[in-house]
Amino acid sequence: MILEMKVPSPGESISEVEIAEWLVSDGDYVEKDQEIAEIDSDKATLALPAEESGVIKLLAEDGDTVQVGQVVCTIDRDAKPDASAVAKKEGSKEAAPNPMPADKSTEAPKSTETYATGTPSPAAAKMMDESGVKNVTGTGKDGRITKSDVTDAIASMGSAGNGVRTSERKKMSSLRRKLAQRLVSVKNETAMLTTFNEVDMKPIFDLRKEYKAAFAEKYGVGLGFMSFFTLAVVHALEKYPQVNSMIDGNEMETFEFKDISIAVSGPKGLMVPVIRNAENMSFAGVEKEVKRLATRVRDGKITIDEMTGGTFTITNGGVFGSMLSTPIINPPQSAILGMHNIVERPVAIDGKVEIRPIMYVALSYDHRVIDGSESVGSLVAIKEALENPVEILMGGNVKKALGL
Q: Fewest C-beta in 10 Å: which of 25, 95, 383, 393?
């Protein structure tokens, strides 16, 4: 019996997706729940698992844009896997009881080949046939040859002059195209301004130096900067609720809860998962949630629900070495805080010059929603909380605040 596999809906309001890459080839035997493709929506990259076991027939190619509900492949559930493939698979599972150590002098080198090693994707195979290029090195999963690999090989064949003159042209992913549209719309549709300040990070450095070992031992996560910044933002939003607002048509909605989005760099680009109800979290709670969300982003397991609904965003360009920037608002939110690298700088302390670890911070905001006094006031509130965390963020009791 032939099973038609349709594109599932990745989330509400998403009508089409893109086949990022097939992880199997036409005619392969696939197992139920085996990941057979990666699909890109305008919000995330998701895995497409096989619904049943059988021989697969691909009806779309890498890079194709398909509608939600469209049939992209079929699985012949009555077809049997190739006999040699079954023998190889079963053989790999067998092991002699209490095996003797192998003689390394006669032991054959272990093969690292998989079904994908050196195998072109359907789109790459078509390009190779049309161009006549051969001996292409695959850089995809398990050594699979992708369209980009073929493009690079074709370009290198035509290089001339004293140096390599190659270029690569490939279709932008659905996620990247949507991000580009959103960034342009933010610049065109909001009255975005940025205000700046600097933070003396020495008080936080001192706290982390004294308590980070005990904190990590108890909670299994480090006492990082994100918990201090997240709780400082919560403090500022409580003082300036207008900053925790957004425009909805002709109305402005102000939120009592603080759902803080955090920008995380992943394999597919920048993702912005959300820390829900940060106002109810402790330092340990924030650090655990940051670690959980960051891990899910980097493993490609983050869901659309985990990335929607934030009311304010924190982004940290400092991890890449940025000294200062003007972060772009994450719509439909009205403000975003940019963290930057920490550099020792001379500053005036009680009439004397001292060397302190200083971070420049930036708050970009939508002037349609947030006035200058609120934007500056909220950034100053964040600065004050970070420079006096014991009193403002910890209620004067460090060990209690850290749960130690």
A: 95
Question: Alpha-carbon dihedral of residues 172, 175, 176, 181, nearest 10 degrees?
Answer: 110
* Whether 211 and 120 share a structural domain: no
Buried b (16+ CB within 10 A) or exposed e, 289-322: bbbebbebbeeeebebebbeebbbbbbbbbeeeb
Instruction: Indicate which residue of 129, 206, 299, 367 is catalytic.
Output: 367
Q: Are residues 146 and 195 in the same domain?
A: no
Average pLDDT in the 371-383 region? 95
Q: What are phi and psi of 139, to 5 degrees?
A: -115, 0
- The reply to whether 131 falls in a domain is yes
Of the given ranges (68-72, 100-104, 122-126), which has the lowest mean pLDDT? 100-104
Which residues make Cβ contacts (< 8 Å) with residue 382, sequence separation at least 6? 199, 229, 232, 233, 235, 236, 337, 361, 363
184: tokens are: 């342009």
Tell me the C-alpha distance between 300 and 92, whole Å.
Answer: 29
Is residue 371 annotated as part of the catalytic site, yes or no? Answer: yes
Write down the catalytic residue from 64, 76, 142, 371: 371
CATH (domain of 11) = 2.40.50.100
Pairwise CA distance, residues 339 & 324, whole Å: 8
Q: Which residues contact 43 (CB under 8 A, 6 or more apart)?
A: 10, 11, 14, 175, 178, 304, 307, 308
| Domain CATH number, residue 139 | 4.10.320.10
Is a pLDDT exceeding 60 seen at residue 92? Answer: no
Domain that holds residue 235: 191-402
The answer to whether residue 205 scores a pLDDT higher than 90 is yes
Q: Using one digit for the tens of pLDDT, what is the confidence trace for 335-368?
A: 999 999 999 999 999 999 999 999 999 999 999 9
Same domain, 63 and 120: no
* Residue 13 pLDDT: 63
Structural domain count of the chain: 3
For residues 382 and 392, what is the distance between their CA atoms, to the nearest angstrom?
Answer: 10
